[in-house]
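Record Pyridoxine/pyridoxamine 5'-phosphate oxidase, 212 aa.
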Amino acid sequence: MKIDDIRRSYTLNKLDGDQLNPDPIAQFELWLKDAIAAELPDPTAMCVATVSPEGQPSQRIVLLKDVGPEGFVFYTNLGSRKASELAQNPKVCLHFPWHSLERQVIVYGCAEQVPTSQVMKYFLSRPKESQLAAWASEQSRPVSTRAALMQKFAEIKHKFEQGEVPLPSFWGGFLVRPQQIEFWQGGEHRLHDRFMYSKTDDQHWSINRLCP
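=>
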């Protein structure tokens, strides 16, 4: 197999400047609705990129759990690699790859922790097994075997068998406040449509078309 021969044409849609909402969050919500309506697998999945103190980038897929005028929210173990790196450098990049729609959105911004009350509200809305998993997993830390992980899960499940599972002190969420948001629509002959929203000094948004 020659991977350099793998390619396809992008012909589903075009994106013109007069089609864009002047508010990038509103534009994102329109595209997210399209992804959900198209029944894409995991339409809220996004790649979160952070950088270590040594300058080493790292990426992982997480699920977007809220979006609004202030930005994009996700939740995680505060001892995880991404949380540790965000504590050192809050600059972050989010990437939504909606391949079958020939679209992608890239968000550049800074992350800050959300209030505990908001974390609690979301945590209590999760399935109980997911709540238990949050307690059982020391995210990003080494574990000897999967059996050891499952044993810890069983112990936690027994411990909280009755009643609600409390919010772990080491579990929280981040709000990514965007400074730039790029919308990419695949185009024929690799002449893709790209538009970059950038926040101005007066907290408005400018829009520029980018070369593909």
